[in-house]
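Data deposition worksheet. Section B asks for the primary sequence of the deposited chain exactly as it was used as input, without tags or linkers unless they were present during the calculation. Section C holds the resulting structure in token form. Section D is free text for depositor observations; keep each observation to a single sentence. Incomplete worksheets are returned to the depositor.
Section A, Depositor: J.P.
Section B:
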Amino acid sequence: MTAQTDPILLEVLKNGFEAIADEMALILMRTAHSPIVRDAMDYSTALCNAKGETIAQGVTTPMHLGSFYDAMNFLVKEFEGRIHPGDVFVGNDPYIIQGQHLPDIYVIEPIFAEGRICAWATTIAHHADVGGLVPGSNSIGATEIHQEGLRLPFLKLVDGGVENDTLFQIVAANVRVPDQVIGDLRAQMAAARAGRQGFAKLLERYGADRIEAYAEALQDQAEVFSRKAIEAIPDGVYRFVDHIDGLGENPEPIELHVRLTVKGSEIEADWTGTSKQVKGGINAPLSFCKSNVYAALRSIMPEDVPNCHGYTRPITVTAPPGTLVSCVYPAPCGARGITGYRIIDCIFGALAEALPDQIAADNTGGSTLPSFGGQVAGKPFVFSECVMGVWGATSRHDGQSGVPHMGSNQSNVPVEMIEADYPLRIERYGFVADTGGAGEFRGGVSIQREWRALADDTYFGVRSDKVYHPPHGLFGGAAGQPAFTEIEAGNDLRPMPP
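Section C:
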């Protein structure tokens, strides 16, 4: 910020940027075709400056939002000199474009004024299917990314206002439910277009130079506020080890190690010691690791810290390449969400010593993600949803029940929508008594959800965790009950591995 910065105008523009990002989120939700986007709200929107730094975030998924910069930084450099009004870019690949996993597809539109790029309207959405081994493309059993679906570098979905029909056809031919996937891509295009139009009104009113100067002032303000929040954490080195149960019939625990070093107004999260990447779809790219670290630390900062790239400047994230939280090609990462949740949980576990009254005990470890697929009357169907869970207790009150992990901020799909559109019946959905763990304050109680497949040869896969490593208590509180998934076929009831 400079002496010439008007603090009132800065606040006005900050709220203007945020209103545009939120409008993009609402348009995407209202125009989406798939339940994973429309109802579960597994998507995100943001405005970025010309360099690709976030200046405002929409109201949806925190674990997405901190990774926009890495992808945008690649896009800006890769297409320098080849970006024009009317272009729309699409991409998803973790290794080529610094994406997250293949179902999360970016759709991004540049915003021009006075002959130059002034900003970007950016969206990301988890698509119902992108091909690969299993319906829904969240294969735990994939051993390399080539088994997980369609890989897209950044390409022009629209080139100077002209749609790339060839690319639309390639996408449609490689997915199981092209109507939903193409419909959701068009919903993202509509949201990005709304972002461009909303930002254009600000540019028209205030001028490109002024908007860009105040967007940079907002980054500086976010950095100042972020540094003050970090200074409130006692200096020191804080460590924590958490687990993912493992893969397959005989799972070996996978460890996540974090060392948080707080020194003055800066903080470093070092993941040295974390298990190596695995031949299963739970590996996380470094961009996704950073995003989850940012989300966890932002959640303990005051509300007035702007949600833009500037607040991440005092935060450093390091992780050895080839580990679970910084995977390298060709590691699969379709189900990397479970690792993102555990990254956040690790940060909270480390901070519990430093900020005991600001951290909750452990939670369900993120949403359980079931996927169903098959055919009805010769037509393929794919259905995925996010089953939410509970939070642990705090030093002041019981944990919340029936809420998402703070990294996702998503929702379950309504029972009526599922039963109307898919050959599935929800047999039971409710709370499980006495599962929150003992203590002065108990954690929230578990969620139970039962589906019945009504079509023959239905595929079922599930991403879940906390079977062998249940949610831990803090400061003498007991652990919560472990999770479980069972399949009933005839008179046979058998547990599934985590």
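Section D:
The chain has a mean pLDDT of 95.
DSSP finds ten helices and 20 strands in the chain.
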